[in-house]
Write a structure and sequence with these properties.
- The complex is a heterodimer of chains A (251) and B (457).
- With 251 residues, chain A is mainly α.
- Chain A has helices spanning 2-6, 40-50, 65-69, 116-132, 152-186, 190-194, 197-212, 217-241, and strands at residues 73-74, 98-99, 102-103, 109-110, 113-114.
- In chain A, strands 2-3 form a two-stranded antiparallel sheet. A two-stranded antiparallel sheet of chain A has the order 4-5.
- In chain A, a hairpin with a 2-residue loop joins strand 2 and strand 3 (102-103).
- Chain B has 457 residues and is of the alpha/beta class.
- In chain B, strand 17 (314-315) and strand 18 form a beta hairpin.
- Classes of the chains: A mainly alpha (251), B alpha/beta (457).
């Protein structure tokens, strides 16, 4: 849950640079929530990744209406017998620790023990590189790295613990203030508050709130998730919605 | 994935309607078939099947076999419908397809993540299991021929419109453009005939659907290029298909390289960013670059893929099957099997409701087919929808997806549910392990994503 909701947070401003000139072309600018239908940010980055390797083809716009107008048709190719062109390439991803399609853990050793933080950093950098500059796959140098090779406690230490600390801190602050507030209003002390059902409910709501709502956007995201999970069901049952009362047996 | 969801109870709301309706509909049918009027003068029920693809062919054959007078209208007998062309094993057995229809048997699939992590899928396949790649013109023609031998009349024409019946059990009048190359008339002549029911099997841009006011659906555009590659590169794709996932290749679908009879089809698709399909295609070609270099593009094609069923699938005695109804799964975009199966199920419902063509059918009989189809395949569709929502939403999720696919249990479950369209309950311990692994993969991929955001190259 901790990780799942944080995917919906807006991207930090640091990615502004190379994307500015392409935003004119993006279909839906300035939407950061990464839901499938609102993906301009990704699209601009995909375009950014494409720009250096895009070849001469000017996409012919007349192709667009025809596929939708028929059940599929042969789109008029610009030059039917055109050979698949080799795109001009940027440098491939290179790292001396990346050997045979995986990270050579021996090169990450620090004091005899593998420095897992460095492995995580290296993999993050590799993925970022490939996202910005997609590469052709190569069967000779197949990528076989699996992130599960990094032990669970390394992930915990790096990602879960700081987040947990932050959330616990928030919960503690909210808890202290609420306890004080309720005490000052009603005179009920902390011990007596814990015995009260209403207060326990408030406590539950506070904990759930701190867990689920970390940024302002999370409220919208949660609403969207709830809509999304039931949307497909609604589409399938649409044909049953206008079900008129069953026809009485005739004649 | 699939067995996991079967272990977890689906919310009752998404099951209640179809099941309840099917029970109700079945009772209705039992009463209606006995009490619906016998057709006058002992004539047989007449049904028009509009569209001669897998759905239309299967429907026409089942109708004709059931004793119903069937007319199948197809506008282009040699149509090479652009299509992925993959059929599951169960289709070969359920529809008795001859094996020479299958151009290639794909036994290995490669899933490639955004960072080019490549995972081989298919280790768990038995020697007799495969994904069949067919040419649509060959498959469609075969099914139509079979329908003809069963007694259906196959007509080359373009459906124009139909007129609703003027009284309660009156006929529908179907208007179409009859093409007949023998009399040399270009453009065809307008003809019409009367039928008692219409089955719309005319695909994603169904005219029958428009006539009956079925409503619209969202659709994806699938764009593909047929590339003839040198023989030694073709060897790599002998039994192998590839799937590429990534934002560069498609924001909500996947790119593919599928082997065809003597060339490969390289393509991609999208729902939300249709205008950028060419960019996505270029990215797909880039990812497969080394393997298709030197190839010649022999054909470029595109087609729409429905994302969900139309709001209304039946109206009076007119119903929809196949792509016209919108029976394409999410995540994989599979439609051929469901088209053929829905065509057959619709036909069987009509045959049953009309007591083998002797009585008039009603809307309730057609609703019976809908209820049965929804009941049989709703879990499959829902699971694939969940998979798409969870694993296609971002590059991090796609990385997790590819990582999960490396697991043998996942592969076995996936292939079982794809090849046989059945959700086999797995070992609960394995299911729990799978759930834990899934969450682990997603968490790791998301954590890496957050690190990636901090990296400046």
């Amino acid at each position: 849950m901790a990780m799942a909701t944080s995917t919906f947070s807006p991207r930090p401003a640091s990615r502004a640079g190379p994307l500015k000139p392409l935003q004119a072309g993006a279909s839906k600018p300035h939407l950061h929530i990464s839901f499938p239908r609102l993906r301009a940010g990704r699209l601009a980055r995909a375009a950014a990744g494409e720009a250096p390797v895009e070849v001469v083809e000017a996409p012919p716009k007349e192709a667009e209406p025809s596929p939708a107008a028929s059940n599929g048709a042969a789109v008029k190719a610009e030059t039917p017998a055109k050979a698949v062109e080799a795109a001009p390439r940027l440098t491939k991803f290179r790292d001396e620790r990346w050997v045979n399609g995986t990270w050579d853990l021996r090169q990450f050793e620090k004091g005899g023990v593998v420095d897992w933080d460095a492995v995580i950093d290296a993999e993050a950098r590799r993925r970022k590189w490939l996202e910005d500059y997609p590469e052709a796959t190569n069967t000779d140098e197949a990528v076989v790295f699996d992130t599960s090779v990094i032990p669970w406690w390394a992930w915990m230490k790096r990602f879960h613990l700081p987040e947990a600390e932050k959330l616990n801190g928030r919960a503690a602050m909210v808890g202290f203030f609420m306890a004080y507030f309720v005490d000052s209003l009603t005179g009920v002390g902390l011990v007596d508050q814990m015995g009260n059902f209403f207060c326990k409910t408030l406590l539950f709501v506070a904990v759930a709130g701190v867990l689920l709502i970390r940024k302002n956007e999370d409220l919208d995201s949660l609403k969207k998730i709830i809509d999304e999970t039931t949307f497909y069901d609604k589409q399938w049952q649409a044909t049953w919605q206008d079900d008129s009362p069953p026809a009485a047996p005739k004649k | 994935m699939t067995s996991l969801s079967s272990a977890v109870a689906l919310p009752s709301s998404c099951r209640a309607r179809p099941v309840g309706c099917s029970r109700r509909a079945r009772l209705l049918v039992a009463r209606a078939a006995a009490s619906s009027p016998k057709l006058p003068d002992g004539r047989r029920l007449r049904v028009a099947v509009v569209g001669g693809g897998p759905a239309g062919g299967a429907a026409a054959e089942a109708l004709a076999k059931g004793g119903v007078e069937t007319v199948l209208i197809e506008r282009k007998m040699d149509n090479c419908k652009p299509c992925g062309g993959a059929i599951p094993l169960c289709m070969v057995s359920e529809f008795d397809l001859p094996l020479d229809l299958v151009d290639r048997k794909v036994r290995k699939m490669k899933m490639i993540s955004p960072s080019n992590v490549a995972v081989d899928i298919g280790r768990t396949l038995a020697p007799h299991e495969y994904i069949g790649m067919v040419r649509r013109e060959v498959l469609d023609d075969y099914l139509r021929t079979r329908a003809k031998s069963a007694g259906a009349e196959v007509v080359n024409g373009l459906f124009l419109r139909y007129e609703a019946p003027k009284e309660k059990n009156g006929p529908y009048v179907v208007h179409y453009n009859h093409y007949d190359s023998s009399n040399g008339k270009v453009g065809g002549e307008k003809r019409s005939f009367e039928v008692d029911a219409i089955v719309g099997a005319d695909g994603a841009n169904s005219r029958v659907a428009k006539e009956m006011g079925a409503g619209d659906y969202e659709y994806a555009i699938a764009f593909q290029e047929r590339v003839k590659i040198p023989d030694e590169k073709m060897l790599y794709y002998e039994e192998r298909a590839e799937m590429y996932v990534g934002d560069d290749v498609s924001p909500d679908f996947y790119g593919w390289v599928f082997p065809k009879c003597d060339h490969v089809a390289v393509g991609t698709g999208t729902v939300t960013h249709k205008a950028d399909i060419k960019k996505f295609q270029a990215a797909t070609r880039l990812r497969a670059k080394d393997k298709i270099e030197g190839g010649k593009i022999i054909r470029v094609e595109a087609h729409p893929i429905p994302e969900h069923p139309r709001p209304k699938r039946v109206s009076g005695r007119v119903t929809l099957v196949g792509d016209a109804a919108g029976y394409v799964t999410k995540c994989s975009g599979e439609g051929i099997y469901f088209a053929a199966k829905s065509g057959r199920m619709c036909a069987e419902a009509i045959v049953a409701g009309s007591a083998s063509g002797t009585r008039m059918v009603e809307e309730s009989d057609l609703r019976k087919y809908l209820a049965e189809f929804d009941r049989l395949y709703w879990p499959t569709y829902k699971v694939l929808d969940v998979l798409q929502k969870v694993f296609y939403r971002s590059n991090a999720a796609r990385e997790a997806f590819v990582e999960m696919c490396a697991d043998d249990y996942v592969q076995k479950m996936t292939f079982d549910s794809y090849l046989y369209k059945r959700v086999v309950p797995g070992n609960p311990l394995d299911d729990i392990k799978l759930a834990v692994n899934t969450i682990g993969s997603l968490v790791r991929a998301t954590a890496l994503r957050r690190e990636m955001e901090k990296v400046t190259l």
